[in-house]
Write a structure and sequence with these properties.
346 residues; alpha/beta; Quinone Oxidoreductase, Chain A, domain 1; six-stranded parallel beta sheet; 13 helices; 15 strands; 27% helix; globular; Alcohol dehydrogenase; ER
């Protein structure tokens, strides 16, 4: 089969690799029907995730059809159409028993495209298939479902829920790529009074406005002035960091009000300064997190019921075999206007 293989920083190739095999009785093998590229994949290619070794197949977001299962798999069978979660869960360790699947100590957590081969391939092995796949109803398209593999639960859990978004809040989202847009979309479920989107790219700010932000501001302008004008000088109740750079994190800490919450979602490859000399008197809560995907069944129900419209997030579509071109388009959003790309089996 063919797969997208990481060759080291800034090196990737669509090349022939061995077909995946059942290794553990809990494994499933899927034919990948639709996959996508994550900003985290770009961080890997940038050298920000050193645990990923050369030779690894990338990708942790896919919808596929089960073609084989191990002897211990009970909930899916060949022929089933499933969502492959970005998080794998053993179901037995302390963290899994608490619903903190991202911290799994039994061989799971974020392993796909990280510690084991991922899903940007024609076929993929999914460990712990009973807890790490979700059978899909007929009414959900592949494109809608693939957004539930990572970006929707990540933004909802690590941004909206960790940030404790409440009715009437002023919410600022710094970074309106796919994760930031999903944060806006799911924050709206809690009826905030205002959602302010901050980004450098006009195309992404316009996407944020279309998806629910009522104020947009360029990062190079004065986001603090805009936020203060909306909040009578207080600052935002919740600020979500959805970029993963020192500058964006530090901006978030300037936009939050005393007693407010900063929810960091972005993947950071470099240290960011924590200005405790300013923050220590302001009762600010800062949260971090890796998605656990405990919310995936709830989000799946909302998408199925038409309560979450994810249609505007996918902007570009490619055959899976054109993944090298898709990476090029996805990595240059300021030039291409790309938000999320869908890669489908020919």
């Amino acid at each position: 089969m063919k797969a997208l293989v990481f060759g080291g920083p800034r090196q990737r190739s669509w090349t022939e690799v061995p077909d995946p095999q059942i290794i553990d009785p809990g494994d499933a093998i899927i034919q990948v029907d639709t996959a996508t590229i994550c900003g985290t994949d770009l961080h890997i290619l940038g050298g920000d995730v050193p645990a990923v070794q050369p030779g690894r197949i990338l990708g942790h977001e896919a919808v596929g059809t089960v073609v084989a299962v191990g002897s211990a798999v009970a909930t899916v069978r060949p022929g089933d159409r499933v969502l492959a979660s970005c998080i794998s869960a053993c179901g037995r360790c302390r963290y899994c028993r608490e619903g903190s699947y991202g911290q799994c100590r039994g061989g799971g957590g974020w392993i796909l495209g990280h510690l084991v081969d991922g899903v940007q391939a024609q076929y993929a092995r999914l460990p712990f298939a009973d807890l790490s796949t979700y059978p899909l109803p007929e009414g959900i398209t592949d494109e809608a479902a693939v957004l539930l593999a990572d970006i929707l639960p990540t933004s909802y859990e690590v941004g909206v829920l960790n940030g404790q978004v409440r009715p009437g809040d002023t919410v600022v989202v710094v970074g309106t790529g796919p994760i930031g847009l999903a944060g806006i979309l799911t924050a709206r479920l809690f009826s905030p009074a205002h959602i302010v989107a901050v980004d450098k790219a006009d195309s992404r700010l316009q996407a944020a406005k279309q998806i629910g932000a009522d104020a947009i501001v360029k990062a190079d302008d004065d986001p603090l002035e805009v936020v203060r004008a909306i909040t009578d000088g207080l600052g935002a109740d919740v600020v979500m960091e959805a970029v993963g750079t020192p500058a964006s994190f530090e901006l978030c800490t300037t936009l939050v009000r005393p007693g407010g919450r900063v929810a960091n979602i972005g993947v950071h490859g470099k240290p960011a300064t924590l200005h405790l000399e300013d923050l220590w008197t302001r009762n600010v809560t800062i949260t971090t997190g890796l998605v656990d995907t405990y919310s995936t069944p709830t989000l799946l129900k909302m998408v199925s019921a038409g309560q979450l419209d994810t249609g505007q997030i996918i902007t570009h579509r490619f055959p899976l075999g054109d993944i090298m071109q898709a990476y090029d388009v996805f990595s240059r959003p300021a030039d291409t206007g790309a938000l999320k790309v869908a890669l489908s089996r020919e």
